[in-house]
Amino acid sequence: MVRVGVDTGGTFTDFVVLEGTSFRLHKEPSTPDDPARAIVRGLERLGVLSALRELLHGSTVATNAILERKGTRTALVTTAGFRDVLEIGRQNRPRLYDLRQTKPPPLVPRALRFEVRERLDERGGVLVPLVDDDLHSVVAELRVAGVESVAVCLLFSFVNPEHEKRVAEFLRARGFLVSASHEISPEYREYERTSTTVLNAFVAPVMGRYLERLAASLPAGCALDIMQSNGGLVSAAVAGREAVRTILSGPAAGAIGARAVAARSGFSRVISFDMGGTSTDVCLIDGTPSERSEGEIAGHPVRVPMLDIHTVGAGGGSIAWFDTGGVLRVGPQSAGAVPGPAAYGRGGSEPTVTDAAVVLGWLLPDAFLGGEMRLEVDRARDAIGRVARVLGARLEEAAWGILEVAQAKMVGAIRVITVERGKDPREYGLVGFGGAGPMVACLLASALHIPYVLIPPHPGTLSALGLLTADRLRDYTRSLMLEVSEPAATSAVSQAFAALEAEALRDAAADRTTPDQLLFHRALDMRYARQSYELTIPYQSSLAETVRAFHTAHQDRYGYAMPGEPVMVVSARLRASAPSPAELPPPEPITELWAPKAIDERVVFFGTDDRVAPHRVPHYRREELGPGALLVGPALVTQYDSTIVIPPGWRGFVDGGTSIVLRQRGGGVDLLTGKHHDSEAGR
Fold this sequence. Notes:
globular, 6-stranded mixed sheet, Dna Ligase, domain 1, 37 strands, alpha+beta
């Protein structure tokens, strides 16, 4: 049986093929106009297309459709008097004192937002019955406007969806694609629920058509599963209907892969650091990746379960430029796959992070992609030279400056998921992956005083590997809005979980999952009375125990708890999971450390506080470094899918799982024994 994980990135599409217990890797230039072309071409070059039985895919289709506002023509149907909720939004602003900031325009213009007469109260009781004549009027206007997809979001439908179901059924019967809020995001908060439903209506037709094209290119009987933002896989049929759940598809796969390789190396507390061609994604992993119930994309709130991943526009293809004040910036603009960095020789001329790395000697022109693609040093030097002339600096100093600016953005991203969440980055390790992650991971760890860096065996394709190790997941939610002190609270929570489990069992039957494969994970969204936002707390042995766990979690997150205050249960959550059949092979025991032989020496530049200086460093091939191989920086390690830069003052070894563990003075690894200290960070 052949299973393939495919992650579509901005520059390359990554493949990991699992045949029995053996893995094969491949990278294919992405085709942004139609990602399916790169996928099919890569499968053909790997020679596995005809034998393929399961394709697991990390997709950027929904994300790009939102960022580029290239979704389908969408309308909104809502309760009379509430069509402007989507535009009014919330009064809080991301930058409080910026008088010039502008909100992104709604994805649905006012002319395509329609009202129907109906009204429920906060408990779901009918105040005004649904007026059917309004539906006929709405359909007529939708046809005139050329609308393809409709978002339906009625007031309090998360409590009683009957009116919303009638509207959705009426529209579906007349040929419209419909996203109903009680199906997409059945939670309170009117603006966020409306925004999420509109986002889904905007991208679901695009995602659905893409997945249909991709499925048609695969052999008969091949299953197609898609990574969701929550770190779990779901069938293409579900992903096509609920596309808003896939906006962090690729980054989530990377976090799952980082968790798997870190666990194999004996670490449970790490930060995943995925630096690709166009962006960098970071996620805190404390046994499992951190999660949240709400996020944002392009200024639009989206309320679905997702991993707590923070993204910044700094990747290998990010372009260096000067703002109006003459300050050097890096990203978010990217050279992408076409034309790519200047060093690719495909017509690109803008200076990028990749070009800076070539100038510094970090990327070797004859070793990129295993020698399949030769980098053009002169083009990279010309591009960086333009930056150097503006700065009045030497070529290598300009290149180092570009990396420092990019690094500052990445440091800020990690602070968001650690310091701003009440976590100390010094208590975690850093898993560097993506095509460019291993190149800068040690410098980033030094800046944040992170004690060690873990480089997976195949860092450039770890997201694709994460797809193969991911579980199948479905998330379910039911609003409750009750105080734990209410007499019926315990029974209401139990009834909510029972209803969600019944729904999960029904869905499993249609999703290639048998009931005996399912594991249920219960949680409650809880807050103190009069607070605005909740914490999601895993359900304990009883509601009383869960309340105690909430107080502890509140103390950890915010630095205080209020045990005497009333506690509200806002929502019940259920996660139904089916474990992945794929497991990474166990690590080999290390009997001794040994010094590998370098292929050759190369001249590489590193910066200090006052100068950028050349160093003659050993160059190793990754495939020649077995368990126990000792590495002392400065050094370069090249492999097919990435380049590892070990700066001066760093050293490490290859562990039993063939990951490279690096530290700088007193990290959590004993290089004499190859063992990890349980008392150190990351355990």
